[in-house]
Design a protein that fits this description.
This protein is an alpha/beta fold. It is built from 14 helices and 13 strands. The strands form two sheets. It has an eight-stranded parallel β-barrel, surrounded by six helices. It has a three-stranded antiparallel beta sheet with strand order 1-3-2. α3 links the parallel β4 and β5. Bound molecules: 2-acetamido-2-deoxy-beta-D-glucopyranose (NAG) (2 copies). One 2-acetamido-2-deoxy-beta-D-glucopyranose binds next to loops. It catalyses: Endohydrolysis of (1->4)-beta-D-xylosidic linkages in xylans. Keywords: Carbohydrate metabolism, Glycosidase, Hydrolase, Polysaccharide degradation, Secreted, Signal, Xylan degradation.
């Protein structure tokens, strides 16, 4: 486990007489630490409760002076009545040893997180998400899906997706586009339109063209098709499969390539982490698509896993995928548990996160890891799996769980 100096400085401000390091707190009601940021950084006020030293280039001009509410008094007044929405700053925000910095040093292209519009109103959350030493890549959880981008036939709205694309650009983070052709989160007009083959093909290619074209040049990789397989390895019956047939997959990829020749084009699915019928089917499908000259660049492995039940065959399975000559990426990683979270479960979870990171590092074609948001506060798990949660490395109050140091340790930090 690495000692992260800026964390110590942030945690023990009354012991040091130094200027505040980058990404540490520098003000806010009841803040008793220093209010002066090191050279090149500026104390940026997010709200009455929290100010942080940000690179001067990205600190908001409206609040580029030290927060005046941060009158340093005595150590005794450090107890905080801050509302839950502005919990203490997450503690792995060190510029020297964030997830992404460590992942790059270990040979990956990125370590990233999902996010979306709703949680960005939480300033502490947004500041940590925006720290490109921690997250070098972001994925919009929902705002680029069909129901967001084309809720009415032919009427495209990119407002919410643009928020995420603009954030990635402002932060210097890679963007993964998610997702154009999926059986779920489809508007009724698509699922219930009773379109014939030619009409639905036109609707699908128009959607792929418009959405991927809109973000052309801004996206590192697109999940072009999502969850096309059943668990037994057969092709899922969706409106696209039922109407167009298997060729909808190839058509979607070819359309995507034309819309953004530079984006990596991925096929993304769940329950393909370890070996098994579904993984074999994925390998056979991608192999067949490549044989037909279909432009598939990568396999996205979602990795919504369960504490204590991580498959033991990750590395061999991912190697078999990479051996096809495509990239692989861990696209939606979280590792849930049955609540309440106990010390034993959190320890097992840390081990499980390490198993995933180690497997990615061991497979040359594995380019990156994306966690499906970074804090339990905004995890999809509790609302989807009754009685389960605590799936992410940070808890709902942004405190680091054992998984944080475990991931950093696997990444060599
Ligand atoms: C925080 O500071 C405010 C004044 O800014 C004070 O009224 C309040 O009692 C303090 N809260 C705590 C928990 O110390
Ligand atoms: C739909 O049309 C395409 C292109 O003509 C064709 O290849 C495919 O077989 C058709 N699908 C079905 C289910 O008829």
């Amino acid at each position: 486990m690495a000692i992260r100096l800026p964390l110590l400085l942030a945690a023990l401000p009354f012991l040091v007489n130094a200027q505040n390091a980058i990404y540490t707190q520098c003000g806010g009601n009841n803040w008793t630490g220093g209010t002066t940021c090191v050279a090149g950084t500026t104390c940026n006020k997010f709200n009455d409760w929290y100010s942080q030293c940000l690179p001067s280039a990205i600190a908001s001009p409206a609040s580029s002076k030290p927060a005046t509410t941060a009158a340093a008094t005595t150590k005794a007044s450090t107890s905080s009545s801050a509302p839950a929405s502005s919990a203490a700053a997450p503690s792995a925000s060190s510029g020297a040893s964030g997830f992404h910095t460590a992942a790059k040093a270990a040979g990956l292209t990125y370590f990233g997180s999902a996010t979306d519009n709703g949680e960005l109103t939480d300033a502490t959350y947004k500041a940590f998400l925006s720290d490109s030493s921690v997250f070098g890549q972001i994925t919009p959880g929902n705002s680029m899906k069909w129901d967001s981008t084309e809720p009415t036939q032919g009427q495209f709205t990119f407002t919410k997706g643009d928020v995420i694309a603009d954030l990635a650009a402002a932060n210097g983070q890679l963007l993964r586009g998610h997702t154009t052709v999926w059986h779920s989160q489809l508007p009724n007009w698509v699922t219930s339109g009773n379109f014939d083959n030619a009409t639905l093909t036109g609707i699908m290619t128009n959607h792929v063209s418009k959405v991927i074209g809109h973000y052309a040049g801004e996206v590192y990789a697109w999940d072009v098709v999502n969850e096309v397989l059943n668990d037994d390895g057969t092709l899922r019956e969706s409106v696209f499969f039922n109407t167009i047939g298997e060729s909808y997959i190839a058509t979607a990829f070819k359309t995507a390539r034309a819309a953004d020749p530079n984006a990596k084009l991925y096929i993304n699915d769940f329950s393909i982490e370890g070996t098994g019928a579904k993984s074999t089917a994925m390998i056979n499908l991608v192999s067949s698509l490549l044989d037909q000259g279909v432009p598939v660049d990568g396999i996205g492995i979602q990795a919504h896993l369960i504490v204590g039940s991580v498959p033991t065959t990750l590395q061999e399975n991912w190697q078999a995928m990479a051996d096809l000559g495509v990239e692989i990426a861990i696209t939606e990683l979280d590792i849930r548990m049955t609540l309440p979270a106990t010390d034993a479960l959190l320890k097992q979870q840390a081990t499980d996160y390490q198993t995933v990171v180690n497997a990615c590092l061991a497979v040359k074609g594995c380019v990156g890891i994306t966690i499906w948001d970074w804090t339990d506060k905004f995890s999809w798990v509790p609302s989807t799996f009754s009685g389960q949660g605590a799936a992410l490395p940070y808890d709902e109050k942004f405190a680091a769980k054992p998984a944080v140091d475990a991931i950093l340790s696997s990444l060599g930090a």
